[in-house]
Amino acid sequence: MSQRHTALRSLHDLGLAAWFGGTLMGAIGVNGAAAKYAEPRQRLRLASKGWSRWTPVNAAAIGSHLIGATGELVTESPRVALQSGVGKMSIAKAGLTAAALGTTAYSRMLGKRIEQADGMASEGITEPGEESQQIASEQRQLKVLQWAIPVLTGALIIVTALAGEQQKPRQVVKGVFKQARKASKPSNMRRVAQLIQHAR
Q1: Is residue 192 part of a domain?
Q2: What is the pLDDT of residue 110?
Q3: How many domains does the chain have?
Q4: Beta-carbon count within 10 A of 36 CB
Q5: Does the pLDDT of residue 1 top 70, yes or no?
Q6: Which pLDDT score, from 0 to 100, does residue 96 have?
């Protein structure tokens, strides 16, 4: 589309970048560093403190991303309806976003449970020690989920790149005509002509 939506795109991209980068750094940096700390009874505390400080920033990043994503979906709704492939991309993006949100929320819940074991000796935030067997299940789940979040948000970045490619004028025209052949009603054809005009 010819209209600019710089603020929405910025909210979308900056929020997603912080969400992806923060969780990846947390898995490698915060959890990794805490697992190497010399005093086993301080490892859970150190990691929990780090994640607690990041949580409000991460929440703001996710909120920013959701505002931007919703705004983009609304402003690009003509393309979603009329350009072949955009609807499927939007569904995939929504599914990945929902999965990333659910995984992030559940990870935080597990982190809060682990935080209650402050002072208990552990191999690491996601590696149970002999004393931390009562929270071993949470730790093992978190070991998987800490990588699932950057994988899901990384996939969102890739889908966003695809969405950007779909907005190129040639791709808009090609996709619109492909979709128009499937439903060549006069009303649809008028909307197609308007969309093509905006894409130029």
Answers
A1: no
A2: 93
A3: 1
A4: 8
A5: no
A6: 97
